[in-house]
Amino acid sequence: MQEKNLTSDTDFLLLGFQLSQQLNNFLFCLLLVIYCGTICGNLLIITLVSTSKNLHTPMYFFISHLSISDILLPTDIVPNLLNILLNNEGHITFICCIIQFYFFATSEAFECFLLTVMSYDRYVAICNPLRYTSIMTSDRCVILAAMCWVLGFSIALMYCVTISLLTFCGPNIIDHFFCDLVPLVELACSSTYTIELEIFIMCFILLFIPIAIVIISYITIILTILRFQSRISRQKAFSTCSSHLIVVSIYYMTLLSVYLFPKGGQTLNLNKFLALLYTVFTPMVNPIIYSLRNKDIKRSLQKMINNI
């Protein structure tokens, strides 16, 4: 059979979840509500941080950038997913597929680095409080956030360039609801050694190193907090770290679950639903965690409401 190379004007077929139309309709309504709530919640966080002087601190500066990422990711995934749910499948061109993967990979890589930076911020705040303002200066925070974005865009670009150099042959069917890396690589009929090597290296850089830094940071933080003599001081210190720790746990547990599970059969469908967690549900949960558990956010929101 003659191989057919997929060019920029060739479509991929996204199979989605392959559920009954009734379940697809229910999932469509649920995801539409979640997406609208995600956009509104994260825009509210960005607005509060930018307009409230009491939120002009490193922690909230990083939270606002997390909200930007949490807007970018579902906006990249959800609109096309809603179309797939309505039609029980969806077509996407090669160029649009690469663009979708680019912004997905950018957001995921950025969030891995940002959550690591945020754990370092909490480490300095708890373990070196007297030096906090001199270490986490405004300029340094901007540089750290910019580095996270640059690394995210650069890593995603590297992947996209490597994928575009692969030779693809039919059938051009992706058993997923968006253009993820592994399903794309599985379609290639040319050598995938280079991109598999990139995946191995990037897993180490994006997952294992950040997770190790976060774990070491929080072990040090917990040991420091336990040495506090005042119970109130311990509770306050744990409170400032708990929101970030919850977000980190949800993010990495769902991300690792998808890529550690074996693929095929029912497990592949499970991976799709797990992928929904970190592409759709986690961006909605993040502002809820930071707003419902944070007194500064609540006070700023109340002040904004009173001024309306």
Pattern of helices and strands: EHHEHHHEHHHHH
Q: What percent of residues are in strands?
A: under 5%
DSSP, total strands:
3
Helix content: over 70%
First-last Cα distance: 68 Å
Spatially, the strands of the biggest sheet line up as 2-1-3
Put simply, the count of helices is: 10
Which stretches of 5+ consecutive residues score pLDDT under 50? Answer: 1-9
Largest sheet geometry: 3 strands, mixed
Decide which structural class fits the backbone: mainly alpha
The backbone outline, from C-alpha atoms, is: globular
Radius of gyration: 21 Å
Mean pLDDT: 86
Describe this structure in words.
The chain is mostly helical and 308 residues long. 77% of the residues lie in helices and 3% in strands. The chain has 10 helices and 3 strands, in the order βααβαααβααααα. The chain has helices at residues 21-51, 58-87, 94-127, 132-135, 138-164, 181-187, 193-226, 231-260, 265-292, 295-307, and strands at 11-14, 90-93, 173-174. The chain has a 3-stranded mixed β-sheet with strand order 2-1-3. Helix 3 (94-127) runs antiparallel to helix 8 (231-260), helix 7 packs antiparallel against helix 8 (231-260) and helix 8 (231-260) runs antiparallel to helix 9 (265-292). It is globular and about 65 Å long.
